[in-house]
Amino acid sequence: MRSVELFAGAGGMAMGISDAGFTHEAVVEWDRHACDTIRENQRLGVEPVVNWPLHEADVRAFDYSRIGESLDLIAGGPPCQPFSLGGRHRGWNDERDMFPEMVRAVRELEPKAIIVENVRGLMRQAFARYFEYIVLQISYPEIPLRRDEAWSDHLSRLERHHVHGQKNGLFYHVVFGMLNAADYGVPQKRERVFIVGFRQDLKAEWSFPKATHSLDALLWDQWVTREYWDRHEILKKDLPPQPPKLEGRISRLGTLFPPDELPWATVRDAISDLPDPEDVILAAQVPNHEFNPGARSYHGHTGSPLDGPAKTLKAGDHGVPGGENMLARSDGSVRYFTVRESARLQTFPDDYVFHGSWTETMRQLGNAVPVSLGRVVSKEVGRCLRKTKYHPTISRQENRSV
């Protein structure tokens, strides 16, 4: 199956999509540092990136005619800063809003399926109308914004077309949802909006994959059977205190059957086999595992617990944000996660190296889609595409005239 990846960053979602059985016809990213990371892994022969056709380019100037026809998937995560809870919240007034370019790619390439990822801030009330606008643009890519037309007027045209009922031409059945990466085995609580669409002529039936992991299963593993501590060879005298806020939930679990899901993965699960980064000699044997001093805890920035999923790793506008990218030790002290530890929390393989300064590499990781989450979603999309049958579309002239 053929795919195109836009806004690829350091390659997290692109790698997951490759793992799911898609072959990238183009991987497009404008940031030089992120492209350097991909190129470095290509030089090292790391699969699956070694054969990616990487384009260091601005998507606004990208020529899609080179891709050819019969594309199965377009995927990408347009820059999240316009909608991030930690950003300036400028939304559609931010020049980094690249959703119109995502729609242009869909309009020109007419893929069978679309996957769009972005921050949970995109779905907050302040952006509710614009989120509706994004979904309707993806649904009807052949009804473009007219010259000098306000986006709100374009939204009104799209709404009228959507309510009209008769759907001709190129259009997509679109669903969206908020996925927590921890619910799919990622050792990080990372909530992201996914928008998935299928071209209507495929008559596809699809829904988001069910969660495979849960907090209840982790609590069961830790405090009912205590198998979690046995796996990590933690002695009873060294156990941390039971979390007070969850005592009632744990007591209730003890009277029930084991949860059906797997336990949430924890920071300890992800990094316990790595050497302490402050042991310089041992840490030097692991790529991207250098210790960085200076971490400090302050209100709202207290680090991630060792025995739970990490907080959401963030890119930061002015360097590495402290509290979101720190480990909280049992003695109350904190330290920064190393790049390798952060890569583990984003489920990148250990042979995948990150190029650039610590600040740049942590920015790449903070912006990345966890590889395994990209794999889970795209694998379900691929499974659906393999089951669908092609139904020729009606003439598209009617859509173009709206």
What does this structure look like?
This protein has 402 residues and is α/β, with parallel strands linked by helices. The protein has two domains: 2-211 and 370-400, Vaccinia Virus protein VP39 (Rossmann fold, 3-Layer(aba) Sandwich), CATH 3.40.50; 214-367, DNA Methylase, Chain A, domain 2, CATH 3.90.120.10. It is built from 14 helices and twelve strands. Helix 4 (128-139) crosses helix 5. The protein is globular.
Summary, kept brief:
It is built from 14 helices and twelve strands. The chain has 402 residues and is α/β, with parallel strands linked by helices. The model is unreliable at 82-94 and 393-401 (pLDDT under 50).
- Secondary structure: helix percent: 25-40%
Structural class: alpha/beta
Averaged pLDDT? 89
Shape: globular
Number of domains: 2
Main sheet summary: 7 strands, mixed
Strand tally is 12
Q: What is the CA–CA distance across the termini?
A: 32 Å
Following the backbone from N to C, one meets helices and strands in this order, namely: EHEHEEHEHHEEEHHHEHHEEEHHHH
